[in-house]
Specification:
Structural class: alpha/beta
Order of helices and strands: EEEHEHEHEEH
Helix content: 25-40%
Largest sheet: 5 strands, mixed
Distance between the termini: 29 Å
Radius of gyration: 14 Å
Number of strands: 7
Number of helices: 4
Oligomer: single chain
Length: 142
């Protein structure tokens, strides 16, 4: 469970890693950013069964470009609250997922819609370029 401050009214809200629907502020009912951590044992519940399209960030603690991309992805999750769920997967702690999705470089970003991969890219990029990529992936028919 993460605590997220509503961008609209400022109230802190607890947002679960996995749930149905879209998280909304308990006070003003505006959509909240949904950012969750997942691993080998929790990925199916947190990412594959999500009601929203999911932006998956495969990253590593030792990866400099991963640290550069994190603030941009958090910003995108904020701006696209109610439209996407950001799920972060630390590759060194999730070897089965890394193998399943053939992750050979970090960061690798993947968009899932209804549990299916609709777009994938490797490497860091500035926030505007990442946002454009996410928007394009959301337009991809599932």
């Amino acid at each position: 469970m993460h605590t997220v401050r509503c961008a609209n009214c400022g109230r802190p809200n607890r947002v679960p890693e996995a749930a149905s629907g879209t998280p909304r502020c308990a006070n003003c009912h505006q959509p909240l950013p949904w950012i969750a951590d997942a691993g080998d044992d929790t990925f199916a519940e947190i990412a594959l069964r999500a009601d929203l399209p999911v932006l998956v960030d495969f990253w590593a603690e030792w990866c400099g470009p991963c640290r550069m991309v994190t603030p941009a992805l958090d910003q995108i999750a904020q701006e696209m609250a109610g439209r996407v769920k950001l799920v972060k997967v630390e590759v060194d702690r999730s070897p089965a997922l890394s193998q399943r999705f053939t992750i050979t470089a970090v960061p690798t970003l993947m968009m899932l819609n209804e549990g299916r991969v609709v777009a994938q890219r490797a490497g860091a990029a500035p926030a505007p370029q990442l946002r454009e990529w996410v928007e394009g992936a959301l337009r991809t028919p599932s």
